Amino acid sequence: MLLQVKDLTHYFGGLCAVSNFNLELGSGELVGIIGPNGAGKTTIFNLITGVYRASRGSIVFEGTEITGMKPHRITGRGIARTFQNIRLFNNLTVLDNIRTAFYSEAAYGPLQALFHSGRYRADEREIARRSFDLLSIFRLSDYSGEISRNLPYGLQRRLEIARALAARPQLLLLDEPAAGMNPNEIRGLMDFIIWIKKNFSLTILLIEHQMPLVMGLCERLEVLDFGETIARGTPEEIRSNRRVLEAYLGEEQKP
Amino acid sequence: MFYIIQQTLNALQLGSIYALIALGYTMVYGILTMINFAHGDLFMVGAFLCFVAATFFHMSFIPALLLSILGTALLGVVIEKFAYKPLRQAPRVSAIITALGVGIFLENFTLALNPYPRFIPPLVCNLTWTFGELSFSLLQVMIITLSVILMLLLDFTVRRTMVGMAMRAISWDKSVAPLMGIPVNRIISATFAIGTGLGGAAGMMYGLAYPVIDPYMGIMVGWKAFISAVVGGIGNIRGAMIGGFILGAVEILVAAFFPSTYRDFVAFALLLVLLIFRPHGILGKPHAQKV
Amino acid sequence: MELKKIHSHLAGIAASRRMLPVLLVGGFFLSLALPRLDWVDSYVQLIIMYIGINVILSASLNLVNGYMGEFSVGHAGFMAIGAYTASVLTVSVFPPGAAGLFFPLAVAAGGAAAGAVGLVVAFPSFKTRGDYLAIVTLAFGMIVKSIIENIEWVGGPRGFIGMEKLTTLPWVFVWTVFSLWVIRNLVYSRYGRGILSIREDEIASDLMGVNTREIKVIAFVISSFFAGIAGGLFAHLLQFINPRCFDILKSTDILIMVYLGGIGSIGGSILGAGIYTVLLEVLRPMGIWRMVIMPLMLVLLMIYRPYGIMGLREFRWFVPGVDLEGLHRPDKKGKSKTDALAG
After folding, report:
1. A 48-67 near C (Cβ less than 8 A)
2. Given this model, what pLDDT does residue C36 score?
3. If you measure CA to CA, which chain C residue comes closest to B273?
4. Least Cα separation, residue B256 to chain C (angstroms)
5. At what angle do helices B39-55 and B184-209 cross, to 10 degrees?
6. How near does any CA of chain A get to the CA of C305, in Å?
7. Which tops the pLDDT comparison, A53 or C128?
8. What pLDDT sits at residue C330?
9. Which residues are B131's β-sheet partners?
10. N or C: where does chain B have the smaller number of CB atoms within 10 Å of the terminal CB?
11. A142 with A175, same domain?
């Protein structure tokens, strides 16, 4: 079991954003979380990655309790993510966006950095090499010196995923990766997700509204409404689930 | 006992001046999320306008007050139009640095016109009531009453009038407000006018209470008022009033028990302690960042 | 054709970069020679030394304000700590007569003291940001001034005297180059990228594995360390310091230099400090009106160039080879076919 979330509950003030959320992710799985807006999906990501501290419940990653850890420690343990609204380091170059994610990989300390010691040089060369490898895998090499803010939207999405992978995660959380894409691009994205999952041997948990993507990609789904899990199962099971239809389309009026 | 009442009065007097200036910081911040560092110097301009009115035009209290308020309000609007408005889309620090620049300009321009500290002639008759050891002057009472009246007026304006509603709308969401038909530029001008006008009024009252004025007087008072605004929770109008009175009280208290050289030290140390325990001020709400 | 162009371009950079050590050595000997030869009078030398000190101040403040995107307004406070520490050391602690020998040590000690205090100021920055952190630094600056005013044995509000004029042109040159070199090294390291990423998006930075607390401590300590260095040099140039030398106006001066030159740029800090210092001197005949004109120019600059002269850009000379290469590296592997990426 790679990730085990138990009875995760979070309150914003008096509002219960997530209540008793449970999830078990095996290595190599691709699982989706769906639900109407405001159902608490992103909050779950924020809880797993340590942005918020859970009011109750536990999150165990690779047998270690990570509840309450600082975000960068959690990332260091192998969970990386992207964001619903792209959050790149806007004024930095594409290359620097990637290199930033290598922070915890480099072994040189502050003093070695201040005086650019041999250790610094070796580590930096390694970081640069691996960053360029990532960039070329993601076909971003031509833009390495470009300020990331100036990239077209699609490339920004791609760069954000590349940056997340630079942190060498085992578990990748994708928050609405298809937002703002047309059906054609979504098909490309589906292939892309399968491809990175295989090549980087990832486990992927994703939030998405685009049903074609979710249904075509995910092995399992969790459906959330008002912070509660209302259904779980394979895409086929979910498709015909009554409560899911109600949550999305509203309750059927009885005559 | 008398001593305590006496000190309370002093604290109220100082506090109401801080509060009036703090309001200007907080209003501008609320609407533009920009710290108008020139505000302390607009306060100074208010004091000098009062000096001009009283010395050269021999105005009495009310006309001089009006001149101070209107003059600084106009100056505030002009500064906003020419110096701050072009920077609304620029990075926030550019606006802050511009404000610092405007402040230095105002200080030195005043100094260039007028190289000596000036003395404001008394505009309020020197009436003092004495009850036993307790004594308080008409001026003191006027400052406190007038400040409170101005603050109540402002509170009413912001909470009950259309202009106030528009201000709150803009501070809530600047991009949506124009879609609702709110004339953003005009409301921002109005905010500057009111904010700096209050600062001008404070300048005049400060000048009457401590009659020697000089072009640099706005710096320290301005920073302290700014601290008041932060203590109360910057962007929050009632917070600015509370913050002003708190700072006034703290300063008077410290001066009463410690050598006066420790006054600033204790005031700022208290500020630090407060910010550690309530990082967003007393009435300020933490701005939840969306991820 | 294309490759050839890139190659000649790279060669050009490499060639010009090799000039840097030559310039540095040349500059050092010039700084040794200037006071002896009668080329420029002592007034000009004084201005040059002020420029050097101001460069250290603005570059170090740029680290926190420009690169990290915080708004510290208490830089003069750190400068004061460095100035008083170094002065007390040369005047009262180190053996008289040998003060010159111990001068670098005294300056470094001043930097260390300021750096240690910078550590304390870094802690509030974990939780507060932006305007509130600005207040913390402001309060810190005021507290430092207040404390010094209340310490009698360093002269209280009257100030501290008795320093020999130990700050000389070569010393200023060496310290300035050293400061810039260290700050530049920091900026182009993983910590530097961490600092930049905090400016851009602190939460994203944390989520990419950057230890933001560690970064903030490093940035504040290094920044205040060099402010302390500048303070020590300043004290032994002026030979007289009092708490008012380091008040909020001094901090404002440094802020102006940083934002004039441009945030997030070492070259900008040099330009900002140089231009500001020289302009103030050139305009001196105008008397008080110079302080009317200067802020007006600043306002105009901000309106037309909100990021300052060099904002977010850098002279190539200051960029280490690895980083420069990154910007021009021709794409070798980009053509590897992966069907998943088609479209």
Report:
1. 49, 51
2. 82
3. C136
4. 17
5. 60
6. 16
7. A53
8. 42
9. B134
10. N
11. no
CB-CB neighbors (< 8 A) of C334 in chain A = 135-136, 139, 141-142
- Report the distance separating Cα A119 and Cα B160, nearest Å: 65
Please, what is the Cα angle at C247 between C241 and C252, to 5 degrees? 125
Its domain, for residue A102, covers: 85-153
Between chains, do C299 and B230 touch, taking CB under 8 Å as contact?
Answer: no
Q: Give burial (CB, 10 Å; 0-12/13-18/19+) of C13.
A: middle
Three-state secondary-structure class, residue A49 = coil
**So what's the pLDDT on residue C39?**
76
* Burial class (CB within 10 angstroms; exposed 0-12, middle 13-18, buried 19+) of C150: middle
Examine the domain organization and report whether A10 and A51 are in the same domain: yes
Touching A: C residues 237-296, CB under 8 Å:
264
Q: What residues of B are in contact with residue A12 (Cβ under 8 Å)?
A: 288
Q: Show residues of chain C in contact with A192, CB under 8 Å.
A: 340-341
With CA atoms as reference, report the closest residue to B104 among C287, C249, C61.
C249
Shortest CA gap B84–chain A (Å): 24
Check CB contact of C131 with chain B, cutoff 8 Å: yes
Q: What is the mean pLDDT of residues C254-266?
A: 93
Q: Tell me the average pLDDT across B71-76.
A: 97
Distance from CA of C75 to the nearest CA of A (A): 21
| CB contacts < 8 A (A, B) | 5
Whether C106 has a pLDDT exceeding 60, the answer reads: yes
Same domain for A64 and A91: no
Q: Is A134 a domain residue?
A: yes
pLDDT exceeding 90 applies to what percent of chain C? 56
Residue C202 forms contact with A (CB below 8 Å):
no
* CA B75 vs CA B101, B134, B192, C142: distances in Å: 15, 40, 9, 29
Same domain, A199 and A255: yes
A119 shares a domain with A177: no
Nearest CA in chain A to B289: A51
Alpha-carbon distance of A195 to A102, in angstroms, equals 22
The residue of chain B with its CA nearest to that of A87 is: B291
Residues A102 and A228 in one domain: no
Mapped onto helix, strand or coil, the DSSP state of residue A117 is coil
Please check whether residues A72 and A90 belong to one and the same domain: no
Q: Decide if pLDDT at A143 tops 60.
A: yes
Q: What is the pLDDT of residues B253-290, one digit of tens each?
A: 888 888 777 887 887 887 788 877 887 788 877 665 55
B98 with C296: Cβ contact below 8 A: no
Nearest-neighbour CA in chain C from A103: distance (Å): 6
Answer for the pair C299, B95: CB distance below 8 angstroms, yes or no: no
* B128 sits in which H/E element: strand B128-131
Q: How many distinct structural domains can be found in chain A?
A: 2
Residue C328 pLDDT > 60: no
Using the 3D structure, point to which of A153, A178, A206 is the last residue of a domain. A153
Angstrom distances, CA of residue C27 to CA of A208, C35, C41, C108, C271: 61, 13, 18, 22, 17
Quick check: A100 and A88 in contact, CB under 8 A? no
**What is the interface size between A and C, counted as CB pairs within 8 Å?**
157
Q: Does residue A74 sit in the same domain as residue A173?
A: yes
DSSP state of A93: B
Q: Does domain B2-277 have CATH number 1.10.3470?
A: yes
- ipTM of this predicted structure: 0.91
Share of chain B above pLDDT 90, in %: 48
Q: How far apart are CA C66 and CA C43, in angstroms?
A: 32
**A86-115, pLDDT tens digit by residue?**
999 999 999 999 999 999 888 899 999 999
What count of residues does chain A have?
Answer: 255
Residues 140-159 of C with CB under 8 A from B: 140, 142-143, 145-147, 149-150, 157
Report the pLDDT value the prediction gives residue C6, as an integer from 0 to 100: 64
